[in-house]
Amino acid sequence: MSHSYTPAMRRTTPQAAAANPNGDTRRRILDAARALFAEHGYSATSVRLIARTLGLSDPAVYYHFPTKRDLYKALLVNPEYGAMPLDSLPLTRENLISQVSHLLNWWSLRPEYGQMLLREQLTGQEASVAFLRGGDARWHDHVTVPLRQLVGEGADEASEMLLDIVCGVFWDGILSFGSQFTETAGQPFFQRRLRAMIDLAIPGPRADRP
Description:
Blueprint: H1 14-19, H2 21-40, H3 47-54, H4 58-64, H5 68-75, H6 85-88, H7 93-108, H8 111-122, H9 126-151, H10 155-177, H11 181-185, H12 188-201
């Protein structure tokens, strides 16, 4: 059983923004900073540049984030993956494939987030490196644990291979397509190939395919 994937991100409604103007300004600052950090890197992105991009004053940014470092760290929040396939579906090979696909699809909807992390990881930016390392625990819970239940012996090695595949596909997509990766990843051919690669990395008979 596969899950539909729509390359669209949830946006704040005008009504919600009017009810919480400070919250909307904070979100706009975070969105602009993410895009600028992704394009220029942390060192080359100033608070003034972020403020001017939004038509704000520097103090308006500092009101929400006392320093640029605070602003950057505010972007490094744990991913909200939402309802996972295995939260409501039985543990089967096909549903585990959907689980792994779900994780990559979450990231492919946010290419600028990936670009920002990749750029700063390559320069040894401590907060980015620590954040990416923290992702190992989330992967363990979402993939390794159910994989152990499904296949038993060899699950840990398969989980590492799956993580390498997912990271490889994601970073290659970011480097090849940049902000257009969302559109590419949403195409049926991409989703079919992704599921086929995941299937190959899981021990045991392959899932039935049309």
